[in-house]
Amino acid sequence: MVLAVAVFVAVAVADGVESPPLMRLALAALLCLILPASAFAVGQGESALTGGPGLALAFEGGTRAGAGADVRILRGLSDSWAARLGVQATWVPATGGKGATRVAAQALGLTFAADIFKLVPFVDLGVLVADIRGGGQEARQRLGGQFGIGADYLVTSHLTLSLIGRLDYFALRLAGARGQTPVQATLALHLGHVF
To answer: How many CB atoms are closer than 10 A to CB 28?
Structure first.
């Protein structure tokens, strides 16, 4: 997991991401929080509600850093597979000549978890609908795909800590302005409850 964060930061720095001091402070705090690692698998018939803050990179006309938050509900289909419903929001501040960008998206997908001791790596695949506003363009609604990887850690029998990295590709225009196909990457730290 620490390697994933290091790669995320290295890509951001190599691409010359502009980020305000508050974003750098948030990244440092996130690194301190995730060093102990993160884990849990939703078993068949179990459910989980997780959510938390994260960092976002927008790749539309240049790379820009921002913040995000998301919530997901998981329902175990088997010991390895879970259905996933998620809601996420990201905000990328104005930089240079580009205005601030806001993205609100809803996702539906599947999660595959490999239950290994207390550390449970997983892969997310899903479809999402996004409402994208700002960034110097008119509002637009897009349909796209979502790919994520992460790990869950079972803190107690009902409390989980998760680190999730996702790539969202908003491929199809549903309504609004035409233009580039927006892509964003997020790295989020979730706290969850299994019931």
So the answer is: 10
* Domains detected in the chain: 2-194 (2.40.160.20)
**DSSP E strands, 135-158:** 137-154
The SS3 call for residue 25 is: helix
pLDDT one digit per residue (tens) for the chain, 195 residues: 333 444 344 444 434 444 455 544 444 444 444 433 233 468 888 999 999 999 999 887 778 899 999 999 999 999 889 999 999 999 999 887 788 889 999 999 999 998 766 788 999 999 999 999 987 778 899 999 999 999 999 888 788 999 999 999 999 999 988 877 889 999 999 999 988
Rounded to two decimals, what is the model's pTM? 0.71
Answer for the pair 120, 129: CB distance below 8 angstroms, yes or no: no
